[in-house]
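Tokens help. Our protein:
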Amino acid sequence: MGRRNEHSRAELREIALQAAEHLVAEGGLAALSTRKVAAHIGYTVGSLYLVFHNLDDLIIQMNERTLDTLHERLAAARHAQREPVAAIRALANTYIAFALEQSHRWLAIYQHHLPEGQATPPSLNERVSNMFALVQDTLTALCPRRSSAEIALAARALWSGVHGICILGIDQKLEIADGPPVATVAEALLEPYLTGLAGLERTGRLHPCTPPG
């Protein structure tokens, strides 16, 4: 690493975020502090406040980078499949694989809470929305006659199940309970849901998750 005065603010921000990602990957969000980041990169804590408002700002920017990486992987998995059902499976499997491989960084997205009264930055909300858009667009291709409200609800319901499988997998509760592997549980969720959704689309019946009018 170069001398302190060799780093621009942009470079300082980058090495600080890399250090934060390393600390979180090793010990979870609880292991992160501005003091530890500063020590890791050889700067003072005060120097960090030249590029971050506070620790919350650093965590938000770190989580945005994690979401960017996750979105890139999901988009690549989605575009590698031509059929909507295969694409949904690819999205789910990629999401689960990322959560299990980068468990502490993935959990940090959901574990971090801003102080009461402080709104989540639009930039973070936009990244979450972009991730859901991949699922919604794929479900729209599977069920083109469904309304946007139906598709949005179906995507939320499906991804809530996928998200729950990730949590159980990280906690190793499935294995501790002598249950099947995470991938098998995911397929048990996806198969009946997607088969039923496609079947309802073919028959023209209303989706059971249709919001009440």
